[in-house]
């Protein structure tokens, strides 16, 4: 296993990124660049090595290559989400078609960056996803949103059911924050995609995140009680207040 941690500063406040890619040159490049920009880095050359790293540490974000031998990036992303890991995941791949990006989102990724790319672009996307993942939404409506037996806290960005936290991906949190900030108001796909920061993928990204979020909050995602589609207009969140 290849652990490429930056040992210059083990301060717990430094955000830790796990880079998973079978190209050692790219791992070294990202290790150096991200370390110089304030991150602590661990590296893995495969999904197997990544799982060994994840046994003893929880990164703040994962940068993951899609086209690795063996278990690929999409399969690993899906598996991590099924295991309840809600860490932000940015996929890297030479496949740049919209369908490939959608496949990444459906697997549970938070962002998708095509190769080749400038390290600075990855840095900006990484910082953006970490901000969206960790910061509370700025809102005048600070009342908790009830969704049946669940409650969404817009200050702490937590979805809670019977005192247990329901783990959401960064994209799911971003979508729920946008909808919860304007309950009972129809929001167009264009408005939502701008708010959740997925302009490059487009409005299809909203549909993917809506499908994923419904699986979390609805008893029957095909017959939604809270997150409704308004044909030709967009989506609306209708919370319960009792």
Description:
The strands form three sheets. A five-stranded parallel beta sheet has the order 2-1-3-4-5, with helices on both faces. Helix content is 38%, strand content 19%. It has two domains: 16-130, Response regulator (Rossmann fold, 3-Layer(aba) Sandwich), CATH 3.40.50.2300; 145-237, Orthogonal Bundle (Arc Repressor Mutant, subunit A), CATH 1.10.10.10. The chain is an alpha/beta fold and 242 residues long. Residues 1-12 have low confidence and may be disordered.
Blueprint of the fold:
Blueprint: E1 16-20, H1 24-36, E2 40-44, H2 47-54, E3 61-65, H3 73-82, E4 89-93, H4 98-107, E5 111-114, H5 119-134, E6 145-147, E7 150-153, E8 158-161, E9 164-166, H6 170-181, H7 189-196, H8 204-217, E10 227-230, E11 234-237
Parallel strand pairs: 1-2, 1-3, 3-4, 4-5
Antiparallel strand pairs: 6-7, 7-8, 8-9, 10-11
